[in-house]
Amino acid sequence: MITPPRGALTALRMLQEAGFEAYFVGGCVRDRLLNRPVNDWDIATNAQPSVSLELFERTIPTGLQHGTVTAVLADEAVEITTYRVDVSYSDGRRPDEIRFTPALREDLARRDFTINAMAWDPRRDVIIDPFDGQKDLRAGLIRAVGRPLDRFTEDGLRPFRAVRFASTLGLDIEAETWAAIPLALETARKVAIERIRVEWLKALDGRRAAWAMDALWRLGLFDVFLPELATLSEARRARIFNSCATPLPSIPRLATFLHAERAASAEEIARRLRFPNEVIQGVAAVIAAWGFDPAAPRRDAEARAALAALTPTIYGHLRSARRALAPQPDLDAFDAFDARLTALDAWRGPLTTKDLPIHGGDVIQRLALRPSPLIGRVLERALWRAWADPQAATREALLAALPALLEEAQ
Ligand code: ATP
Ligand code: MG
After folding, report:
1. Which ranges constitute the DSSP H helices of 259-372?
2. Which of 95, 240, 291, 357, by CA, is between 20 and 30 Å from 130?
3. Which domain holds residue 272?
């Protein structure tokens, strides 16, 4: 079984030897029981933050307002949080206030799901599990701590977290917990969209990603951040969700979700979801190219020109997204499509005039021209030659062909 790293164990021992309670809590206890890699070994303690600040030589006080001190031991950062309860949630997003408590049980009770509400003391090897998280882990269930509807109306991110954990851990959502989510959508709408996006992307990375997308739909959660899905036919939506069984990078993945949109509105949606700029631009480019038919260019030069126009990067994203959505009966046609793309991928010749072995200066000098848009047109003709026969398009050959290219360009 996975053991905690030395720094985290030392921090826990130091707190206990100073006379305080200290436990590993939350995700690390859950992941260790599942024998999965642990992200952070978080510690909960009844010691006040001021005690941790004194006790440890190197500390970072970044989370003090939540009662968290980060201690650095053996080059590891360990988060140590004083037992606390969240006092009120007037905006459905974050507690207005926290209060420290001497009781571990109260600290566990504020946590979202039973599997996240366990504490473990490795030195005595005891697990404190007042809400039967271990039982739910064995049964494969995400269950809210306490009354599900209360917990979801306190914090609108929790429904998204429920789906995310179900996807990444391969669990189901317990029936009452599930039933409360559609009743708490108003709170879910108050959550900052980037936090929803983060949970969505984590769910997409999980082993039950296709199921999780269908769950988001059935629970009404997509309506909170991607209401455009409701305009699609059920079959098309199912195809998108099923495609999520195979992971894709953000640009093609987002393109599968937005392929029925116009490029401008796909861009707007990606912006609304606060994706990084390169993703926004990439998605817009893929959607703009969505109708591209790789079987249409008849000559190789045309196919290369098409590849050049799209750029190989966008072409790659377009292909991944379209492959992901290809329906089962189309697979034959799809193989042919893919073979064509593979051939195009092998292309290593110039894609733009900038990649040519001749430059604007050569054209001006050799043809005794002045700088003007005509120079660009001559280079474009040279590029077409290179596309038609890449091997023959050496610098010497293109320089020799300049008078003919000028004639074509005029
Ligand atoms: P991950 O592997 O994603 O880090 P995690 O369970 O550690 O999973 P965190 O977001 O790091 O999740 O939160 C740590 C712990 O804090 C959780 O296990 C849970 O006990 C508690 N927690 C986090 N977010 C919430 C929330 N929105 N409501 C209630 N408890 C929460
Ligand atoms: Mg964590």
Report:
1. 263-272, 277-288, 300-310, 312-325, 331-345, 360-367
2. 95
3. 233-348
